[in-house]
Amino acid sequence: QYRPSLSVNLSVMFAYGTAYELPEKRQAAHFAEHMMFRKGSRADYRQRHEELGHLSVNGVNAFTGFESIVLGNDNVFTALPQSAPRLARLLGEAVYDDRIEDEFFEAERQIVLKELLPIEQSEICAFFRKVDRALWGDSHPYTLAAEPCVDNIRALSIDDVRDVFNYLAGRNVVISLVGCFDEETISAIKE
Questions:
Q1: Angle in degrees, 0-180, between the axes of helices 158-168 and 102-120, rounded to the nearest 10
Q2: CA-to-CA distance for 137 and 27, rounded, in angstroms?
Q3: What are residue 179's DSSP bridge partners?
Q4: From the CA atom positions of the chain, what is the Rg in Å?
Q5: Is 130 exposed, middle or buried, given 0-12, 13-18 or 19+ CB atoms closer than 10 A?
Q6: CA neighbor of 74 nearest in space, from 86, 90, 58
Q7: CA max distance for the chain
Q8: What is the C-alpha to C-alpha distance for residues 155 and 101, in angstroms, rounded to an integer?
């Protein structure tokens, strides 16, 4: 005996992470992940972010790793069944809206730098860089992806981040849908 699901879990994962990047463009995927929900005009992105926050019971977040960019808090958005179609449409807008405003780009650059500086300077990060080097060697993408990259973040342009979005558009994406969903939710994902 089981109780049917009363929610929908929606996850969007792109097979593109820091290990895919050229050394001089390292962290463009991470920067793109940050910009995912900051695209469009101020009104557009604020409305989208606020609505995503209301629809998803576990909030709005994303993660970039060596191999992937994953949208969702704890790698998933959880919503009530009636909210799932709108949630899917909003995620699609976040991914495929190609408008990046200079003001938001520079503001997000500061957020990414603030996030990365303490990590890069930590002893534990230095230890794991040594472990990566020992495991993978000097030229392996995992070793390179773990190298300090604050200078890269400072040098990345809007076009570098747009290149990531252009690469992601319709490619190498896995969408998982679990729980109590209907035809309308599947149609929204297809759109």
A1: 90
A2: 20
A3: 8
A4: 18
A5: exposed
A6: 58
A7: 57
A8: 17
Instruction: State the burial class of residue 170 (Cβ atoms within 10 Å of its Cβ: 0-12, 13-18, 19+).
Output: exposed
Average pLDDT over every residue of 122-148: 83
Q: Please report which helix (H) or strand (E) contains residue 91, including its range.
A: helix 84-96
HEC string of 119-183? HHCCHHHHHHHHHHHHHHCCCCHHHHHCCCCHHHHHHCCHHHHHHHHHHHCCCCEEEEEEECCCH
CA distances from 106 to 56, 63, 82, 158, 168 (A): 27, 20, 36, 9, 22
Over residues 33-54, the pLDDT tens digits come to 888 877 777 777 788 888 888 8
User: What is the predicted pLDDT for the residue at 64?
Assistant: 86
Token couple for 115: 């996030």
State pLDDT tens for residues 92-101: 877 777 788 8
Both tokens of 147, joined, read 């190298």
